[in-house]
Amino acid sequence: MSSLFIWFRLLFNCRFYYPVFTILFLDLGLSIAEFAALNVVWAVTIVLLEVPSGALADRFGRRPLIVAAGWLMVAEMAVLCLMPVGDHGTVLWLFVLNRILSGAAEACASGADEALAYDSLPEQDRAALWPAVLARLSRAMALGFIVSSVTGAVMYDHAKVSALLAWLGMDAMPRPLTLKLPLLMNLLTGVACLLVALRMREPAAHDTRPRLPWTAETARALRGMFGTGLWIWRRHDVFRLLVLAVVFDSVIRLFLTVASQYYRLIGIGEAWYGVIGTTAALLGLASAGMMEKMTLRSTLRGNFAFLALLTLGGLACAAAAAPGWAGVALVMPVMLAMRFLQFFLSHYLNAETGSDRRATVLSFRGLATNLAYGGMTLLFGWHTGWLKNAREPPADDLIVFADSLKLWPAWFAATLLLSLLLITWHSRR
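Predicted structure:
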């Protein structure tokens, strides 16, 4: 089961369009403000569905939620592949639909796949075996990101695609079609992800549970959802982890989301975005063993202190925006920070949570982090819009983006300090 879990997570998360995520929206005619608003739609969808889906997974089983995530991934990619290029209104509303479908897929997959894999391990050996599974996942994800990043970035570069087709003696491809090539590749991986999901099976503990009528089961799931919320509040160790997850994830993920715009800012060509993603993935691959050792040999406080230094250093370098490849090298710490964060959170949360509410707790993690991410994205969109309109005439998008980056280190430091104060208060209440 752990192998199927790794394949599912790999196919679900390794997106060919990620290296050009932000500029894809912009090149299709949307503004930075519209891009930010669409990410808020995505985050709100997850927030609305995250915890109920996790609770239902704990009651009905995790496999139905995972299969639903596979179907939704196919649907979200099909919408983008069929999108007409050039009609701003149609493009905007199809992106809205895509973000809703994508958010629903994330909500279904989040927590359910991880909980199913964890519960499939022998009960007496779970704590010892799970870090090794996470290490395998980290290595697989690194390799997956290498392939998807390089391929997706090259596909998106119209000049490179045209040169390759000319070398093969074929006619040049229209620019609107090259914009969609990474999306078409992800439609194929979405189908593969669905096929993997259909092969998954519930652990026996969940297959043999007594079933209530659907309405009664749903009501019990909702009661379990609120009960888990109270349980998290009462468990300081779990509460602390979720607070830290909110602070780190919101800032790091937003930077990774707009990374393609940062590369344009420092003068890196589109075809190289995949090389950058590959470098980050190789660093994650090389660090997998280090992550495993840190969770086994160091304390939670020490690991998150290391993560804070990694994140703050990377954001400070991003704010400086050194031109060319120096600017790329200097932000690698913040890219690597996401790998460490995901590893730490999965290890510590699963160790603190029982099987009966594991999917729900992991979904609470997704709820909290996506709510914070949506808030950060909304703040980013508002701030860049204000900076743009504060100048007369309105400033170029890249200039506005550069100005906004300068505040990110201070924002992260301030929110981290507030979170530590909240954690301290919670421990003493």
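Summary: The CA atoms of residues 236 and 426 lie 7 Å apart.
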